[in-house]
């Protein structure tokens, strides 16, 4: 895992934002059309959204670093590392659909790909063995990022994620492994303790998503 390269990309994007303010302009233009379920504070809403994006980006290298350490500790590198490599690849070598994107605004798209990839893989594992591969729930954060990116383009990114997940997992992964043995390993006290030893998997970004019955 090339975690330093990911962090360097984020730092360069922050410097780009200081010079150009691309993300701030993008967020400001979309604040009026955000879904009403996205709850922002009355004061400094733009600042809160900017901090959300920065934290959403920063969580990618933190998550990949922690997940790799847990995989090595628990002996499940074969399952986790290929997923982490694809998430890393989205950052370091983004797909053509992201060409021309720069700064924090561009990295938001790439972070969305990485987070959605892990979310989709987790959903597949939960469906087959009742346990996520990586016990991190970013569903709400991903929904908010989806809105910030924009419905049309975010849907294109979702399609790229589906292709990546299908290539990673295929249709036979869960037939090829011993599900009972794997389930025992990911739920063992050693694995659970390894995740608990890294307390920053979940972060409060200051943006909430409030869904009412009418939204569903």
Put the structure in a nutshell.
The protein has 216 residues and is an all-alpha fold.
Distinctive features:
disordered C terminus, 2 strands, single chain, 216 residues, 69% helix, mainly alpha
Please outline the major beta sheet: 2 strands, antiparallel
Structure class:
mainly alpha
Quantity of strands, as a count = 2
Low-confidence spans:
212-216
Characterize the structure shown.
This protein has 216 residues and is an all-alpha fold. It is globular, with a radius of gyration of 18 Å. The N and C termini lie far apart (39 Å).
What is the strand and helix layout of this fold?
Elements: H1 3-20, H2 22-30, E1 38-39, H3 45-74, H4 77-92, H5 103-129, H6 139-149, H7 151-169, H8 173-176, H9 179-186, H10 189-196, E2 208-209
Antiparallel strand pairs: 1-2
Helix pairs in contact: 1-3, 1-5, 3-4, 3-5, 3-10, 4-5, 5-6, 5-7, 6-7
């Amino acid at each position: 895992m090339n975690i330093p390269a990911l962090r360097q990309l984020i730092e360069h994007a922050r410097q780009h934002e200081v010079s150009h303010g691309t993300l701030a302009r993008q967020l400001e233009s979309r604040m009026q059309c955000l879904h009403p379920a996205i709850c922002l504070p009355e004061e400094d809403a733009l600042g809160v959204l900017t901090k959300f994006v920065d934290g959403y980006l920063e969580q990618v290298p933190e998550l990949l670093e922690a997940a790799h350490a847990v995989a090595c500790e628990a002996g499940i590198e074969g399952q986790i590392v290929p997923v982490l490599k694809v998430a890393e690849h989205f950052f370091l070598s983004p797909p053509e659909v992201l060409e021309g994107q720069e700064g924090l605004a561009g990295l938001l798209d790439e972070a969305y790909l990485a987070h959605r990839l892990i979310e989709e893989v987790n959903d597949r594992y939960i469906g087959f063995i009742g346990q996520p591969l990586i016990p991190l729930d970013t569903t709400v954060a991903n929904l908010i990022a989806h809105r910030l990116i924009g419905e049309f383009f975010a849907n294109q990114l979702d399609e790229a994620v589906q292709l990546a997940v299908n290539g990673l997992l295929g249709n036979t992964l869960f037939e090829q492994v011993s599900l009972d043995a794997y389930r025992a390993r990911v739920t063992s006290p050693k694995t659970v303790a390894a995740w608990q030893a890294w307390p920053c998997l979940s972060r409060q970004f200051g943006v909430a998503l409030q869904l009412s019955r009418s939204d569903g």
